[in-house]
UniProtKB/TrEMBL annotation:
InterPro entries: Ankyrin_rpt, Ankyrin_rpt-contain_sf. It comes from Spinacia oleracea. Keywords: ANK repeat. Coiled coil: none annotated. SMART domains: ANK. The keyword DNA-binding does not apply. ANK repeats lie at residues 8-34. PROSITE patterns: ANK_REP_REGION, ANK_REPEAT. The keyword Cytoplasm does not apply. This is Ankyrin repeat-containing protein At5g02620. It holds the Pfam family Ank. Gene3D superfamilies: Ankyrin repeat-containing domain (1.25.40.20).
């Protein structure tokens, strides 16, 4: 059920991240933190959606609980070639997360 996509190629995790539902995001990540977070039809992954909306809680939850390979790496290019970090900054939604710890984890496990 978690991996089912709608007409926009959004999963339940996309929707939960977009709407800021931390409890649902946590539940979905606990159920399976290694399945690939595919981009929807406009190129957004759940991490991108959480960052774009400035949700420090959701960004940290996704980074801390997902294997980097499931996310496509920190370098995932979303809409207009923006990464999740670009999205957080560009939309004026500062996400105060130590991104470097995740970038290092991605480099080590790749």
């Amino acid at each position: 059920m978690m991996r089912v996509v709608n007409k926009n190629k959004d999963t339940a995790l996309h929707d939960a991240a977009r709407e800021g539902h931390a409890a649902v995001v946590k539940l979905l990540l606990e159920a399976d933190n290694n399945w690939p977070h595919e981009a929807n039809e406009v190129g957004e992954i759940p991490l991108y959606l959480a960052a774009e909306r400035g949700s420090t809680t959701l960004v940290a939850m996704i980074l801390d609980n997902c294997h980097p390979s499931a996310l496509g790496g920190y370098h995932h290019k979303g809409p207009c070639g923006r990464t999740p970090l670009h999205a957080a900054v560009q939309w004026g939604k500062p996400v105060k997360i130590d991104w470097s710890r995740w970038i290092v984890k991605d480099a080590i496990t790749s």
